[in-house]
Write a structure and sequence with these properties.
Blueprint: E1 9-16, E2 19-25, H1 35-42, E3 52-57, E4 64-70, E5 75-76, H2 80-94, E6 98-103, E7 106-114, E8 117-121, E9 150-153, E10 157-162, H3 171-179, E11 189-197, E12 200-207, E13 211-213, H4 217-229, E14 236-241, E15 244-251, E16 254-259, E17 262-269, H5 271-275
Parallel strand pairs: 2-3, 4-6, 10-11, 12-14
Antiparallel strand pairs: 1-2, 1-17, 3-4, 4-5, 6-7, 7-8, 8-16, 9-10, 11-12, 12-13, 14-15, 15-16
């Protein structure tokens, strides 16, 4: 990439329960976000570091359009915690308490839940094999994989294992083993979850293209849906993650997710850094 014509690129650093993001606002100025840029910014020693990078774009028929990237440069259609973080930012700047956002996943709606909490409707879960997608026709409630995990789509694919104690699973080894399973042609997010009380789950997550993360919104939604389908919980559950808790409510109009967000800092990617890519 030429060093000519590079200007500093502003960004925001945010997180939802430790699930961290670099957010680039392209509504006023269309920044060139390339796969090389995403990978470079995602490096936690030579860049900024993040689980996902999100771009805010102008949307004629909505409050904003959101685009998501994993730290390996691949695209993701959904990122629940990033959506909540950006929704809170737009609410704070606009004074609105309800938002209409668009993503590759589709239309998402966000609300101020009070007490500093933000809710996002992540849409209806995808329960049929071809929509998740899986590689071949099968029942998604219990896959023909050791441990009998449940497959769910939330705009991105998920594979949820219900185990006796999620804390005891070596996720660094367990996660990549199933992220690339042949049943998932687009790879998958992998969750291990334990029932720790009535409508109360402990969940840990391996995100495709990222690795172990402290939290994942879409994974929390997928796990709650899977638990309800299997009769382990009702449709409203509290999901405990490494970074905190999310309330998931699977309603008729979609899966609502509510939790805290944090806008950590504003920064600038320098022209020198951008020219080095």
């Amino acid at each position: 990439m030429s060093a000519q014509n590079h200007i500093d690129m502003p960004f925001m650093k945010m997180h939802g329960l430790g699930n961290d993001f670099v957010v680039i606002d392209s509504r006023a100025y269309a920044h060139d976000v390339t796969e090389a840029l995403v990978r470079a910014v995602g490096h936690r020693h030579m860049g900024i570091g993040f689980d996902q990078l999100a771009v805010i774009e102008a949307a004629p028929q909505a409050d904003a359009h959101l685009v998501f990237y994993n730290s390996d440069g691949s695209r993701s259609a959904a990122c629940g915690n990033a959506t909540r973080c950006i929704a809170r930012h737009i609410m704070d700047e606009s004074g609105k308490t309800e938002l209409h956002l668009t993503t590759e996943r589709g239309d998402l709606y966000a609300e101020d839940a009070g007490g500093g909490l933000t809710s996002v409707n992540m849409g209806a879960p995808q329960l049929e094999w071809q929509d998740i997608p899986l590689a071949e026709a099968m029942e998604t409630l219990e896959l023909p994989i050791e441990g009998g995990p449940t497959a769910t789509g939330m705009g991105n694919p998920h594979c949820t294992f219900f185990v006796e104690d999620a804390e005891r699973v070596a996720l660094e080894d367990f996660g990549p083993r199933y992220e690339h399973h042949p049943l998932y042609p687009q790879r998958t997010n992998v969750q291990v979850a334990s029932l720790i009380g009535p409508d109360h789950l402990r969940m840990r997550v391996w995100e495709r293209g990222v690795g172990v993360t402290m939290a994942s919104g879409s994974s929390s939604c997928a796990t709650a849906v899977a638990a309800a389908r299997r009769g382990l919980t009702g449709r409203r559950v509290l999901v405990e993650l490494d970074g905190g808790s999310l309330e998931i409510d699977w309603r008729e109009d979609g899966v609502w997710m509510t939790g805290a967000t944090m806008h950590v800092a504003n920064g600038t990617l320098t022209a020198q850094f951008l020219a080095s890519l």
